[in-house]
Amino acid sequence: MTRVLLAASECAPLVKTGGLADVIGALPAVLASEGVDARILLPGYPAVLEALGDARPVDMPGGLPAAMTGRTARLLEAAPGGLPLLVFDAPALYDRAGGIYANDGRDWSDNALRFGAFARLAAAIAAEGLALSDGPWQPDVLHAHDWQAGLAPAYLAFIGRPRPSVMTIHNISFQGLFPPSVIDPLCLPREGFTPDGYEFWGEVGFLKAGLMAAEAITTVSPGYAREILTPEFGMGLEGVLAARDNVLSGILNGADTTVWNPASDPALPAPYKTPKGKAASRAALLARFGLPEGPGPVLGVVTRLAWQKGIDLLLAALPGFIDGGGKLVLLGSGDAGLERQLRDAAIRHAGSVGIEIGYDEALSHLIYAGSDAIAVPSRFEPCGLTQLYALRYGALPVVARTGGLGDTVIDASPAAESAGVASGFVHAPGSVRALHQALERLLATWADRAAWERMATNAMRQSVDWGPSAARYAALYRRLSTP
Ligand code: ADP
Ligand code: GLC
Questions:
Q1: Percentage of the chain modeled with pLDDT above 90
Q2: CB-based contacts of 346: which residues, under 8 Å, 6+ apart?
Q3: In what order do the strands lie in the sheet with 36-43?
Q4: Measuring CA to CA, which residue among 62, 200, 196 is closest to residue 123?
C-alpha cells in the first residue's frame, strides 16, 4: 500500500473557499480504492478544530523551530466523517476570527509564517514519519497542493532527507510571493534564494519553490497543463514550467459523487434520477429567489466573484438573454464592485434576475438541481468543478473553452448531437459576443424541448467521477516511490 501525505490549506466539508477543498475532501476515499493510504495535513483553523470531535495528540516530529510554530503548537489525529486528518493546531498561527487567508479583504500579514510553518511540518512528517494510533506511519510520497504547501518539497531537500514529492497547481494566479525578509524567519537556506531555487523576480516564491523541488508537477486538467506553458496563462511561471515540462502532467479533477448526487441530496426538496425530476427543485429555487415561474430557461451561477470568473462578461451579455425569455439566479461573493453591479442588475431586471451575495453550501446544491443551465464564463479555469456538478444534476453547462472547462463539456455541435454525447454549450473565452452567441444557441435548443431533454439526459450520463484520475494519481505515486 502506497502512503501519501496530502498537504493542503482547505478540505471540504470542514473549511472551503473553493474547489481545492472539494478535491482534498474527496481524494482519500477515491485513492483508497486504488490501494493508496492518503492522509490530509490541514492547518488547525477554528472551524477545523470545532469539527474534530475525538482527536488524539500525536508526537510532533523533531527539528521544528518553536519560533516558527509558536510554543503551544501540537499535532492532532482525527477522522471526522471518515476523513483521515492530521491537524496542525498552532494557535499563534491559526487561532483567529476572520477568513483563512485574509480578513476584511486584506491578506493576513503573517501568511508567510502561517503557511511556511505548515509546509515545514509537512516536510518533517515526510522525513521522519509519525506514531499514529494504527501504528507507525511514514508517507512514501509528499503531495503538496498550491502555494500554501509549496515550500514543503523544498524543505524536504533542505533538511537533507529527500523523499519523492508531487506539486499540484490548482491555480497558478496565486503564487505565494513574499519579500526576502521572510527568508530567515522561515529558516530557509540563503543559498537557495536564486532563480534555480525559491527566488522569483526578487521575491520568495512559495509555489515556485515547490515547482523547482518536486519530482513531479501536476495540474488539474490536461488543457490547463498545456495553457500554463504559454505567457498568456503561465502568469510569469511559464519559463519555469517549460524547463520542467518533462515532469508536468494534467490530471483532471472529478466530482465527489457521494456528496454531489441528485438521487440522495438532502439539500433538495425531492431527489431525482432523470431531468424530469428537476421540476420540484426548480420551483423551490425560483421561490427562494422570489422569481415567478415562466416558460424561459433558468440559468444558474455559483462562483467566487473574481476577474478570473468572467462575471462582468455575463453581465454584458445578460440583456439579450433576458429579452429572449431567460432568467438568471446567481450565488457568489468576492469583489465588491461586481457585487454592486449584480445587485443593480437584479433591480433593473426585477422578476428575471435573482442575486444572493454570500456563501451558502446548501443553496449551491439547490441551484445546480433547480437550474436548467449553469454558466461558467471564465477567462481561465484550471479545472472548474461547478460545470461537473451541473452535468451531474442535469443542468446544461454554458462554458468558455479554456482549461478544464473545454476538457469536460461536450459542445452541442451537430456531430456531437447525432452521436448522442452533446452535454453543453462551449464558447470562446473572454468575449461577450461569443458568450452572447452561446446563450442564443441555448435559447434555440430550449425552444426544442425534445432536443433539450436529450442533452440533459446525456449530461446526467456523462461520467464525472474520480475513477480514471484516482488511478492516474495512484500510478504516479507508485512510480515515484518505487526505487
Ligand atoms: P474555484 O476553486 O476557482 O472557486 P471551482 O469550480 O473549482 O472554482 O470550485 C468552486 C467550488 O466552490 C464549488 O464547489 C462551488 O459550488 C463552490 N462555491 C463557489 N462559490 C460559492 C458560494 N458563494 N456559495 C457556495 N458555494 C460556492
Ligand atoms: C482552483 C481553480 C479551479 C479548480 C480548483 C480545484 O481553485 O480555480 O479551476 O477546479 O482549484 O482544483
A1: 98
A2: 353, 354, 355
A3: 56-58, 74-78, 85-89, 36-43, 2-7, 141-145, 165-169, 216-219, 248-250
A4: 62
Any atom of ligand 1 within 6 Å of the Cβ of 302: yes
Cα 61 to averaged position of ligand 1 atoms, centre (Å):
35
pTM for the model stands at 0.98
Best probe residue, ligand 1, of 385, 389, 399, 409 (max atoms within 8 Å of C-beta)? 385
298, 310 Cβ separation under 8 angstroms: no
The contacts of residue 315 (CB under 8 Å, 6+ apart) are: 341, 342, 345
Distance CA 297, CA 71 (A): 57
Q: How far is the CA of 295 from the centre of ligand 2 (A)?
A: 34
CA 475 to chain centre: 22
Q: Please, what is the average pLDDT of the chain?
A: 97
Indicate if ligand 2 lies below 6 Å from the C-beta of 18. yes
What local confidence, expressed as pLDDT, does residue 237 receive? Answer: 98
CB 10 less than 6 A from any atom of ligand 1: no
Q: Cell numbers at residue 87, please?
A: 491537524
Q: For residue 251, which of 119, 176, 152, 145 has the smallest C-alpha distance?
A: 145
Return the half-sphere exposure (C-beta side, CA atoms, 13 A cut-off) of residue 136.
Answer: 6
Q: How confident is the model at residue 207 (pLDDT cuts 50, 70, 90)?
A: very high
**Residue type (1 letter), 189:** P
| pLDDT at res. 53 | 82
Q: How far is the CA of 363 from the centre of ligand 1 (A)?
A: 12
**pLDDT, position 54:** 86
Q: Is the CB of 385 under 6 A from ligand 2?
A: yes
- Return the closest-CA partner of residue 261 out of 447, 392, 407: 392
The best mutation among 148, 251, 253, 309 to test binding of ligand 2, ranked by most ligand atoms within 8 Å of the C-beta, falls on 253
Q: Which ligand is nearest to the CA of 252?
A: 2
- Of 209, 197, 200, the closest CA to residue 153 belongs to 209
